[in-house]
Amino acid sequence: MSAQDELLETLAFHPEAIQTLDLKQFTPELLVAACKSDGRALAYVPAQLRSIEACLAAIAATPLALAYVPDDLLSQERL
Description:
44% helix
């Protein structure tokens, strides 16, 4: 199992672990996996890395995650 696969598995069950990642480890796939499991994980993602996909996954999992969506993404039609 690769390091990336281990991170994906960990984040699926412990999304709060995202706060321990180094900026170099953040990938779109990891962000979405963590946010799908628990939308509150979005709070630990640096704002500049919060993608529409991660935000949509976070809101679908935890509607209150809307509070962590950057303003520029809120104005887009997809949210």
